[in-house]
Amino acid sequence: MDRDSREWWERVAGGELAVQECAACGTPRFPARAFCPACRTEGWRWRAVEPVAEVESWIVSHRAFGGAGPGTVVRVRLAAARECAMYGRWLAGREPRAGELVRAIFSQGADRTLVDWAPME
Fold first, then answer.
1. Beta carbons of 16 and 50 less than 8 angstroms apart
2. What percent of the chain has pLDDT over 70?
3. Which pLDDT does position 121 carry in this prediction?
4. What Å distances lie between residue 41 and 19, 44, 45, 94, 112, CA to CA?
């Protein structure tokens, strides 16, 4: 956690998904960073977004990593901020499908709340 991402982690802990939005041009961005990739200005604000995304890709880990057991990690593109992609654990008993709509699940990790993904079903 750093100065740019601190508020994101605080919002996630409260069950809210958010992205940074450039104060100058309005470009959404994730992960949090100091400069806008579109206009290179420093100002930003946080914007809550609907916790819905589309599966782009995934990997299956067969080994435990970072305290988590084997499992699937998905890369999703946010429906409300198409410029923003996120990664998280896949929480379903089946393989994800490319293009599938998913919803964020806020799960308690060892030291913070994490964003995982599950089918919209």
1. no
2. 96
3. 78
4. 16, 9, 12, 43, 30
Copy the structure tokens of residue 45. Answer: 């604000």
Sheet strands side by side (includes 28-29) = 28-29, 18-22, 44-48
pTM for this model (two decimals): 0.89
118 contacts 94 by C-beta, under 8 angstroms: no
Q: Which tens digits make up the pLDDT trace of 79-109?
A: 999 999 999 999 999 999 999 999 999 999 8
Tell me the per-residue pLDDT of 13-25, one tens digit each, with 9 for 90 and over. Answer: 999 999 999 999 9
Domain edges within the chain: 6-119
